[in-house]
# Entry
Amino acid sequence: MPRNSILGPGFSQSRSPSSLHERLRSDLAQGFQDSISDVALGSSAADLVIKQGEQVAVVEVKTGDPGLPLPSSTSAQMLMLTYQAREQFPGKEVLPVLITNYRVSDDDEIELKQQGIKLVRVTGTDPEYGARRFSSHFAEVVGLQTDLSDKSL
Amino acid sequence: MYCEIIIKHASRINAEKLEGAVRPPFGNDVLVLDAYRKSAIYKGLVPPLAPPNAPPPPTSLFAFETVLNCFVIVRKVNVLLSTYHLEGNTSGVSAETLLQAAQEFSSQLISVLGDTSTCHARTLTVQLFEDNGRETGMRGELVTLSSVFLEEFSWKELKSSMIPFATAALLIWLGLKQEPIRASVYSLLIALVFALTQAGVKYWQGRGKIKWKLRQS
# Structure
């Protein structure tokens, strides 16, 4: 299994009517109470912004056909998001985070890493997946703390 | 809006092979930097719009003008895949024109690659993105013999043949060949059962959803 990867939600229609994109975003919002969905940042937009102390995580959820490679414009999109988040949150440390189910090549991973973009990979096959597990994994990769208590985990 | 076109090649390729195959036949070169300056998603990464001390923009192989007032940036090559960015020269190019340009450019590209001995295309996928890089959800694939074959063998296509098959099987089983009225009634009942079952399944799968359609002519 690729690094920074977590098994994602199953695709059963009966579990939830929403798309993978919406499920990931809503699950993450549950794990981080100080998060805001669909934040306009200049001409860009973040799926989720999580403020925690001096850090601001700017999250883009990019989902599509998992058999396709990561769109080649992703690094440009994430860079623009970072620039605009820095303007919007001066003095804060901006953490750009990409959550994706696309295939990420080694070259893509290196490019994202060089740009300081954290990568969280998901797949859509595990019915045991849940908001707590995903938020914990996300927090571990990004270096934030979830608002979910240890008891609930 | 812009499109990304992903070609899966029949064998491994590299940047030199692809450039040799694609660049001369298309011609109309433009500098990659100029193409970035015209692009909604890349223009913020290059001067004069890039912030001070910004890292260099992502690298691309080459760029050229194409049909319907659009341009192409040949973005990258990775083992079996090559990726192309297609966008309008101005924001006045509509999504409909862009999709038409994607169709025409893809046809030309497949033909150009087919003329080479090393860069044959196996599959082609097009995705449409918003100016800020987000997916629109619109995606297209090249029509191939295998895709048509699989489509024809799907339940959607086979179900129309199932009604006469089930009718014939039932009539033979009941021995009703000589009773045309009863045979007709049975045939009608089978068609009704199929239609009702299908309507039920379709409604269950699509309840609460909007059915979008793409105008194609």
